[in-house]
Amino acid sequence: MLEELKDNFRKLIALYEGQREENARLKGELQSREQEVESLKAKISDLRKQIENQKLTGAFLNGSESIADARAKVAGLIKEIDKCIALLES
Asked: Is residue 85 part of a domain?
């Protein structure tokens, strides 16, 4: 009876160690996945910014306009914004 109890105790310890190792492996995998998710979130954010920039570029360059024309439009918009700010400040 004592030997059977010792044998069962050894099996229980072996199972515990196996589960502990599995738990450590899964924690490492989870950390790796969390890092991957953060990396992908950053990439998504960057791609969204690129899309917005392309939409803006497309709004200014609708085929017939050049980059110089687009820059002139932006400069004009900035001047209008500056005028609005000046009016708000006075």
From this structure: no
DSSP string, the chain: -HHHHHHHHHHHHHHHHHHHHHHHHHHHHHHHHHHHHHHHHHHHHHHHHHHHHHHHHHHH-SSS--HHHHHHHHHHHHHHHHHHHHHHH-
What is the per-residue pLDDT for 46?
93
pTM: 0.53
CA gap 33, 41 in Å, rounded: 12
Q: Within a domain: residue 57?
A: yes
Tokens of 90: 């006075």
